[in-house]
């Protein structure tokens, strides 16, 4: 066999026997192993390999090293045994960490054993969910089934919507705001100060002018401030929160629309994206909750699949109007499809997990779980207040806000999300009364030691939760 090559601009023939396969082995030395000597100090703390450590623990100090297998490992099996032991210890860690998980909005109560048979397949949903590409190992039939379910929930006809299963909640926000920018290229993005950080990330990525709107004490957008800051000379792109990150506040969608209309904005001059990451799937089952529906002049809705639904990997659902998506989509000959998504490759397993859960629970199942979460959230809030601990719970929320614990180890143990002087627990379907009691009993016991000598007093968090919810010496 002869290979063609070019030497000094001339074609030359290379015989197969002249091609030394061993030449591609060990041509480059292995990269050096990072040692403790690579961690250097800085004036604000530490740097590792030049990277400054700002928040949280430095994972590199406890990372699991990747090591090269021994030459005889195929015979001894030592490497396989080592990896099995590492994974077994990691599983125990996951069990313990799941038992003490309260501060982040993930439903850890699920069983997908029936889907284990699919883990051997590389399922990739490339391109448009509604157009089958040349790549055949996909799960579009599941993806579109899930999208239809959410379209029905948010009241938009099959022929009138477009959407896809995203890789996370942030991608849903990035996509919704991008569609708004493409529909209204010179529009200004408006978002409350308590909006998820991904909204402001989108503004930076897309080089959009962004105006931050003040919030009420609840964390809900202040529509009076919104009205005062509206620029009537340019179209408006608005992020509406269906549950804020810290306080779980739900923006009043109807009041936002009313504010826009009263300010002279016709429906073709504004675009509303609803960030329903957590509560977007809970609100439809709360009686007094404002309704999120495409019968109102909204442009898109996104919800996370790994939060209330309980998917084991990050994912989400993003739905917009079909009339908007043409401004974003491009034909891709390589795929024999078109694409209007943020990511090219998308996790094809995620739609199957979502489809499986939606079929098992249905609307009635989710309604029962919502009722359980709200009931348990009120239980937690009441017990905190009975113990003299400042606490707040918004009417439509399962996020209980309370004074930040003084002990950071306690915060880490229960994986609490903190901001300033406050922390929160998000009551999800896997959070039982027994789990809340364990947390409360430990918190009350620890708290008695933090303030026992009288030198320190519980913090006043009235500025965060209001005087009526603050249990400090001044307000109780």
UniProtKB/TrEMBL annotation:
Keywords linked to the UniProt accession: Decarboxylase, Lyase, Pyridoxal phosphate
Catalytic activity as recorded in UniProt: L-serine + H(+) = ethanolamine + CO2
Pfam family for this entry, one: Pyridoxal_deC
Residues recorded with modification N6-(pyridoxal phosphate)lysine: 307
Source domain of life: Eukaryota
InterPro entries according to UniProt: Group_II_Decarboxylase, PyrdxlP-dep_de-COase, PyrdxlP-dep_Trfase, PyrdxlP-dep_Trfase_major, PyrdxlP-dep_Trfase_small, Pyridoxal-P_BS
An example Gene Ontology molecular-function term: carboxy-lyase activity
Protein name: Serine decarboxylase
One of the protein's GO biological processes: carboxylic acid metabolic process
SUPFAM superfamilies found in the cross-reference section: PLP-dependent transferases (SSF53383)
Assigned protein family: Belongs to the group II decarboxylase family.
Cofactor: pyridoxal 5'-phosphate
Species name: Manihot esculenta (Cassava)
Alphabetical list of PROSITE patterns matching this protein: DDC_GAD_HDC_YDC
